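pls ignore typos typing on phone
adenosine-5'-triphosphate + seq
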Amino acid sequence: MEKVNIFIVEDEAIVAKDLSNTLDDLGYSVSGVASTGPDAIRETSKLSPDLVLMDIVLKGPMDGIETASHIFKQKGTPVIFLTAYSDDTILRRARITEPYGYIVKPYNKKELHSAIEIARYKHTMENRLKESEEKYRNLVELANDGVVLVLNDIIEYANPRFSQLCGCPNERLLGSRFSIYINPSYNHKPENRYGFQNWNGIRTYETILCNHNGHTTPIEINAGNVTCRNQQADLLIIRDITDRKRLEEQIVKTEKLESIGILAGGIAHDFNNLLTAILGNASLALEKLQPDENLHKLLSKVQEASIKANVLTQKLITFSNGGNPIKKTTSIIEIIKETVDIALSGTNVSHEYSIPEDLWPVEIDKKQIAQVIYNITVNAKESMPEGGLITVRTQNVLPAEQEKDLLNGSKYINISIQDQGMGISKENMKNIFDPYFSTKQRGAYKGTGLGLSICHSIMKKHGGTITVESEKDKGSIFNIYIPAATRS
Ligand SMILES: Nc1ncnc2c1ncn2[C@@H]1O[C@H](COP(=O)(O)OP(=O)(O)OP(=O)(O)O)[C@@H](O)[C@H]1O
Ligand SMILES: [Mg+2]
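k done
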């Protein structure tokens, strides 16, 4: 085993010699001796000893206490003081330099040995503690979750991620009340509010974080009890769950649409059978009447209404699971251009395309995808009654460029249809894909509110998705994503 290197700082040569011999006897190696503070600082910096034995009273410009403080700052070398006095003022001064021990002269061999071993043990343990503290500090400071220590609702510690979530610099967070960052109107269970202290073990719950600008973020809190200044405090791990919430909402919406789809499809199917009988019999009866007869006019209205009802049931069937796509690999460029041109012909709305030639082929049911593009374009047109511009863009989307959670890591093509119309309010945004949700009044008729439900249903059957970005009075962008064909 390597010997422990000890450096002696002692201005009396005889004492230094005696100390050196004793250390030698005890199995230590003396790496050097200095008699003044400046020499000691210079030599220890060169030799890096494991420990320094330091006489407090030294001749020259610095005493042992000042010298020890320099040496400790230099490389964290542990220092044991040797002193003939145990004077209170001296000891108080010495304590500031965090010494690893004192030996009162005259010392005996045993005392010297145990003081050195205790100092070395303390130094090793302190180093381990420092390392471990640094490791955990880094973990907490770099964590992607907020970490907060709360004592009696006061923030004692907050990591950078929590400052970021609160939109507030760390200095301002410390000492402020934690509860002001939690939305009071959120539907907490009473025990979940901020009454953490009454709980033992880890608790997990969801709530809303409000930052300084009034921005809210859904969060999940994992709370555990820790001791802080002899009191029970709460250690909170705070996770931003915006993405998870969005995904949950999407799943609930999809499930809701699916069950409505089954119901609507079933009814539409039976209803269609009844309509066939109504339409068929109305046509037969009409053939038996002269066009100028009163009954002929009445029956014509029955026939007209039945045809409209038939169009409606067809829409419902497409929306429900009935309209399974018949997919073929194709280039979509022609379909887009034809459909948009038809949807906008004879209107005061102009349109432009940004469609690269190298768009990947897709595997689609042409009629159904044309229906999606048609419905979205008609909505865009209807959002600009005074006229305006619709921009249709397409692009290939590589897995690396995809929006998180939206697409499943395959290649997609994206069709984006942008209008400059009235936009969609935050409130309506939640409902636009719901069947029968419509804000349109066309004379005596309302919109059926089936357009976007049908788009959603068709996109789902194609393994794609549809998203919307819109703000009231700021226009809308509808994006559809269709998986690129794996075979051509
Ligand atoms: N581009 C758009 N700009 C503004 N609002 C839109 C746009 N697209 C859809 N909406 C809103 O979404 C609602 C639902 O659209 P959807 O296409 O499902 O039904 P609709 O257009 O009202 O009726 P239908 O399509 O059956 O004629 C609309 O009533 C409208 O409020
Ligand atoms: Mg519509």
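The chain has four domains: 5-139, 143-240, 245-319, 328-483. Confidence is low (pLDDT under 50) at residues 187-193, 195-199. more later
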